[in-house]
Amino acid sequence: MLLKLEQASLAFGHVPLLDKADFQLDAGERVALIGRNGSGKSSMLSALAGQGTLDDGKVWRQPGARIAYVPQEPMMDAAQTVFQSVVSGLGGISRLLAEYHHVSHALSQTDTKHSELLPRLETLQHALEAEGAWTWQAQVDRVISRFGLDPEALTGTLSGGQKKRLALARALAFKPDALLLDEPTNHLDIQAIEWLETLLHELNVSLLFITHDRRFLEHLATRIVELDRGKLSSYPGSFAEYQRRKEAQLQEEAVLNRKFDKLLKEEEVWIRKGVEARRTRAVFRVQRLEKLRAERMERRDRLGQVKLRLDAGDKSGELVAELQHVSKAFDDKIIVRDFSTRLLRGDKIGLIGANGAGKTTLLRLILGEQKADSGTIRRGTRQEIAYFDQFRAQLDPEASLAEVISPGSDYVEIGGARKHVIGYLEDFLFAPERARSPVKSLSGGERNRLLLARLFARPANVLVLDEPTNDLDMETLELLEQLLQEYSGALFLVSHDRAFLDNVVTQTLVAEGDGLWREYAGGYEDWLTAKSRSPATNKPAAPEKTAPPIKTAKTVKPKSEKLTWKEQRELETLPDQIAALEAEQKNLTALLSDPTIYQSAPEKSRSAACRLSTIDDELMALLERWETLESRTNTSP
């Protein structure tokens, strides 16, 4: 056991974020902490890291364990170099390492006075040897190199993605036993996210992380812990398994609440009849009514869902934009090279590429906000464009929420119907009393919700969403997906969320390097599939004179193969093997659903969780093998 919360309580105003909550992180676990925006996930992570406080309860950390914490927006000294920033987490030896690195770098320059620096370098070498710090120097160099960072670059000059990599490098430099990550995929492009997934799989480090990225969560988590209305619930296994169990729990909770409310209503009717509570039974009913009232007051109902509605307004022309041989460069960097495409009303286009590849530039070319260096761009007619900015530059931090939604008016018009701005904000889970609060008082997730509310308050037949998923909770993400699937206008989506792209877009524009852009049908996974086949599909055709005669076509047709006796026996045993694995999976899930096992038999719980995480892969392999053998049986003569 590395970390533990015991009876933790934390409130924001009158709302409990943690209500006597218990949590435990064991060695080797990779736990995803999920929950709605504002539920207290970041506060809990901060308390476990020792940087936040609780109102009540205890935080226990294993003595001597190294705990690293990367918040959503890490604090950095803009004047420090990358190397200085990374070693800053190493305590007393950080100054020695930073100075040694600086002197070594200075000595490598041709115009340096070596005679002045060499004595200082020798002094630093002796000091580092005395501290046993050479292993840390090597570790820092390895981490900086692995994260693809320039050790001499100033942190103030780094992009958002580079700063996120620097924060992760700083956390990993001192070989932590446990790593606490708050939204680690924010500001990273898809390539960097997949690289981070691989790195965290390879590292022998316990992990507790907050993320809205369902693909990242699915690939990493061995257990999911949900924070809901102050309570923590543990769900061993995959995200899909969590979703099934959570849905069943919510249905059961709704049934119990309806029964409770019915009983309370019946007792309220009885007491209003004025029956004198003199007999024992009557006294008991009065006492029970008082208890029911108290329980109802304490019950925290689940928050409602965001109500998303999008008005596509008047139809635009059939053509959105047509690009023919378009090129664009800034100085010597080519952003778009000889690109042609035709985009129509109803298309949902995802833009995929590394940070700095030129996604925003291509969007501006398509929307007519920037001129091409060469080629032609023809734009459609009657276009009403709405833009979602990932940096939230459209939000005035001093303006109130109501002013952001409807400047100079108390009403908004959605689909031809007028609605009061306070009621409209309630659809996006903003309480009426917050309508006059300034934007700067909102959290990251709340700002994203407000920007969506502002965006959807105006009709638009062309929608541009630049990283709309950052900081949104999963329920809102799924509702936004459904809304965009039903949207009748043209959609341009820049996102690093692979699941979101797969669920929304109909085609992708992909930056493939050196200004080359290609168009693919489908979402992210469809692009990966096409990419994996591209060497074969893009292979030049053979010259016509070497083509085989038509009569030889029969000789190259693959023959159907009958199953061997061994394969036939394998096919017959596969159903029993699959059934056995499914039964084992069911038993392990039931075992890990008992919260007492984590204290009474921690070793058993760890081995069970590890086994549960491998069963899905084994089942998939058996099912694929079964399908392969079955298909050969069906095609055999």
Strand residues, percent: 15-25%
Spatial ordering of strands, largest sheet: 5-6-7-3-8-9
**Helix coverage percent of residues?**
40-55%
Q: Using the 3D structure, state the CATH architecture of the largest domain.
A: 3-Layer(aba) Sandwich
Count of domain modules? 5
From the structure above, extract its key features.
single chain, 637 residues, 6-stranded mixed β-sheet, 20 helices, 44% helix, 20% strand
Q: What do these coordinates show?
A:
The protein is built from 20 helices and 20 strands. The protein has about 625 residues and is of the alpha/beta class. α3 (about 95-105) runs antiparallel to α4 (about 115-130), α9 (about 240-270) crosses α10 (about 280-300) and α18 (about 565-590) packs antiparallel against α20. The chain is globular.
The gist of it:
The chain is α/β, with parallel strands linked by helices and 637 residues long. Helix content is 44%, strand content 20%. It folds into five domains: 3-79 and 154-230, 3-Layer(aba) Sandwich (Rossmann fold); 96-148, no CATH class; 242-298, no CATH class; 319-535, Rossmann fold (3-Layer(aba) Sandwich); 565-635, Helix Hairpins (Orthogonal Bundle).
SSE layout and pairings?
Elements: E1 3-12, E2 15-25, E3 30-34, H1 41-48, E4 56-61, E5 67-70, H2 82-87, H3 94-107, H4 114-131, H5 134-146, H6 160-172, E6 178-182, H7 190-202, E7 206-210, H8 214-220, E8 223-228, E9 231-236, H9 239-272, H10 280-298, E10 319-330, E11 333-344, E12 348-352, H11 359-366, E13 374-379, E14 385-388, H12 401-405, E15 411-414, E16 417-420, H13 421-427, H14 444-456, E17 462-466, H15 474-486, E18 490-494, H16 498-504, E19 507-511, E20 517-521, H17 524-537, H18 565-592, H19 597-600, H20 602-635
Parallel strand pairs: 3-7, 3-8, 5-6, 6-7, 12-18, 12-19, 14-17, 17-18
Antiparallel strand pairs: 1-2, 1-4, 8-9, 10-11, 10-13, 15-16, 19-20
Helix pairs in contact: 3-4, 9-10, 18-20
